[in-house]
Amino acid sequence: MGSGIAQLAIVAGFDVWLHDSDSDALRRASEGIAEAIRRLVSKNKISQLAGTDALNRLTCTLNLEDLQHADFIIEAIIESEDVKKKLFCDLDKLAKPSAILASNTSSISITRLASSTNRPSQVIGMHFMNPPPVMKLIEIVRGADTSEEVFSKTKALAERFGKIVICSEDYPGFIVNRILMPMINEAFYTLYTGVATKEDIDTGMKLGTNHPMGPLELADFIGLDICLSIMKVLHQGLGDSKYIPCPLLVQYVDAGRLGRKRGIGVYSYKRESAGVNQSKL
């Protein structure tokens, strides 16, 4: 997600520092962005000069301190409240006083993330859909103390990225995942209880409701660990038993069957990727 957001920003004309603590992940991200820009040029989406200029605006760094002069910092790390809070605490200490801190969280309370900083009015949710360069939507989430000025600047940034903005109050799952994840969870229950095969569940939703992907296929694309994490947030935050994660989803995650990124989830992708050398965003 982080590399896709970085790609959007450099194409939109911003200087970007892309940080990761893992040098291999940073290298893969840089290579993936370069390949994506080359595809845009080859398809005449942008000019060769614009592509070169965009890549020149990207700096990759292993040093978090390099973000100290940034005007706007977007966090896109693992979907864990504790890990995100630790990062926001660190960012708060090093970022300049005027900097806005945004989270790409898909379900975690912005108010709670903001509480780990001394600038809660400058913390906001900016939830990109995956993959960010392709999907047209950004979900903006205000925390309890997010200022109107910060909201306006974040909305303007999203629109400069060419995105359509929807706004959510700070409730578990926000808008998209409050609706989407229970549907995916119910698809797992449908498979778990033997109502139908995974293929028929997905085909039913694609052809019967005109969804571009079936819910189980979509879960594999998102990552089953992320789906499980969001269901736990919904269940804990809303307290309704209908948000209890399906035991089959839990079992798949426990087994390391996380979806496309691991080569196996509900479906197997190992044959599909065998022998194919592709850069990964």
Topology (SSEs and partners):
Elements: H1 2-11, E1 16-19, H2 23-42, H3 48-56, E2 58-61, E3 72-75, H4 81-94, E4 100-103, H5 110-114, E5 123-128, E6 137-142, H6 148-160, E7 164-168, H7 176-192, H8 198-209, H9 215-222, H10 224-238, H11 247-254, H12 270-273
Parallel strand pairs: 1-2, 3-4, 4-5, 6-7
Antiparallel strand pairs: 5-6
Pfam families: 3HCDH, 3HCDH_N
Domain 3-hydroxyacyl-CoA dehydrogenase C-terminal: 173-269
GO biological process, one term: fatty acid metabolic process
CATH topology group of the largest domain: Rossmann fold
Please count the beta strands (DSSP E, at least 2 residues each).
7
Determine the N-to-C terminus distance: 7 Å
Rg: 19 Å
Spans with pLDDT under 50 lasting ≥5 residues?
273-281
Structural class: alpha/beta
Please trace the helix and strand order, writing H or E for each element: HEHHEEHEHEEHEHHHHHH
Q: Can you say what the CATH homologous superfamily of the largest domain is?
A: NAD(P)-binding Rossmann-like Domain
Shape descriptor reads globular
Strand order of the largest sheet: 3-4-5-6-7
What is the CATH top level name of the largest domain? Alpha Beta
* Residue fraction in strands: 5-15%
Helix content: 40-55%
The CATH architecture category of the largest domain equals 3-Layer(aba) Sandwich
Major sheet summary line: 5 strands, mixed
Number of helices: 12
Domain count: the total is 2
Could you report the average pLDDT, rounded to the nearest whole number?
95
Pfam families: 3HCDH, 3HCDH_N
Pathway: Lipid metabolism; fatty acid beta-oxidation
Domain 3-hydroxyacyl-CoA dehydrogenase NAD binding: 1-170
InterPro entries: 3-OHacyl-CoA_DH, 3-OHacyl-CoA_DH_CS, 3-OHacyl-CoA_DH_NAD-bd, 3HC_DH_C, 6-PGluconate_DH-like_C_sf, 6PGD_dom2, NAD(P)-bd_dom_sf
